[in-house]
Known about the structure:
- The chain has helices at 7-16, 27-42, 48-68.
- The protein has 3 helices and no strands.
- With 70 residues, it is an all-alpha fold.
- It is elongated.
- The termini are far apart.
Amino acid sequence: DKKSKGEVLGEIIKHLQCAKVQIRVDETEERQLGIDAADKVLLKDMDVEEAYKELVEETKKLHEKYWSDK
């Protein structure tokens, strides 16, 4: 339609095909998990890959708990 060819909306619509969405179930807790992972690496000398694996597991648990209540 005419709007999708406009200068502003046209660019937005064009880039929607490559857009990705990440669902946040608890933004505060997810942010804290990221901070904790960074602290483990920077302050406690944990291996980056190990800290990342733990972050993924903890985030997964958070999402599973959230979705199990739905």
